[in-house]
Structure formats: C-alpha cells, structure tokens
UniProtKB/TrEMBL annotation:
GO cellular component: cytoplasm
Residues in Redoxin domain copies: 23-181
One BP term from GO: cell redox homeostasis
InterPro entries the record matches: Peroxiredoxin_BCP/PrxQ, Redoxin, Thioredoxin-like_sf
Gene Ontology molecular function terms on file: thioredoxin peroxidase activity
Record's protein name: Redoxin domain-containing protein
Amino acid sequence: MHRFDLPDNLPVPVDDGQCAHLKVGMKFPIDILTSLPVTNKHSVDITSYPRTVIYFYPRTGKPDQKLPDGWDEIPGARGCTPESCGFRDHFQELQSLGANVYGCSTQTTDYQQEVVERLHLPFDILSDSDLKLVNHLHLPYFTLPELENIPLIKRLTIIMKDDTIEHVFYPIFPTDKHAQEVIDWLKQNPIK
C-alpha cells in the first residue's frame, strides 16, 4: 500500500467532547500563535486573508520510517500525509475563498521542514513542540511510549476570522476528504 492511501478498515473517530470548549465566538490566542516556529522561518500572518484555517494533526512520518506499532488502530491517527496533500491540492481554491492555511503539530520545525519539501506544500506548518497552544486551548492529544510519550494532537481544524473562532471540525474522517469539507463550509458561510 502506498503511504498516501488509507486502509479501508481504519477505525472511525467519534466525538468524545474534547473540543466542546472551543466555541464559536471564542478568542483565539493570536499572541501564542504568532510566537510559534514556522517552517518558512517567518511568523504567522493572520491579516493577509480574512480567514485563517489551522489544521492540527498528530504527526507526519518519513518514507523510510515504519509507522508506530498500533498506529492504524488509533481512531483518527492515520492520514496526516493525505490530509496535508488535500490542503495542498485545494490551496488556491481555499485562498480564493478568503482563507489562508496553516498546518500544526507538536513535531519540531526541522522535522516538519522535510514534509513541506517532500510534499511541496505551498503553506507553512507551525510547531507547537513547546505545547503552548495545546496547553492554552486544552487541545485533545494522545501519547505513545514508542514515540517517547510526546503529546500528539488529535486531528481537528479551526477556522478563524481575525482572532475569533468561527468553526471547529472535530473529529475529522476521512482525512483525505477534509480539505473539501473545509471548502464546502467556506462556500456555505461567505465572509460578510
């Protein structure tokens, strides 16, 4: 199976309520967001587009590394590369709908740089390796002993207008169709 393909028998994540506190109208901590390391070595700019889409994901692997043991059995864990490719493939349409896109994981910027280059991502990935957003927003995560129990953010997407949350997608499944799901929401909720 190609790394970009998703197995047919992946467990479907259920809404466990861990994002219920992320309410529409809630202020997003822009000061924390703009302090995160970014793969382009610049800071986040939420002023260049009316909306900002941040998709959070557990981790990306590298082609020469095997998946962690049991990865496919964790609901919502598998699919970071297909999700990123979906946002890449729909990037221009997302921008035409007034949204800039960022990915975010707890991996280091150096690690993330590999996936940006390998997948030719036209957007930046943010590193929350210091867990600033995870802790401030109480984002859901899981850990694996095989990965040194580093918190891995459960897959979710936040859409913001300026510094205010407009929508939260959680849980997300299937990951390879999520960018289209975001596009559909943007089309149904045009900027006023």
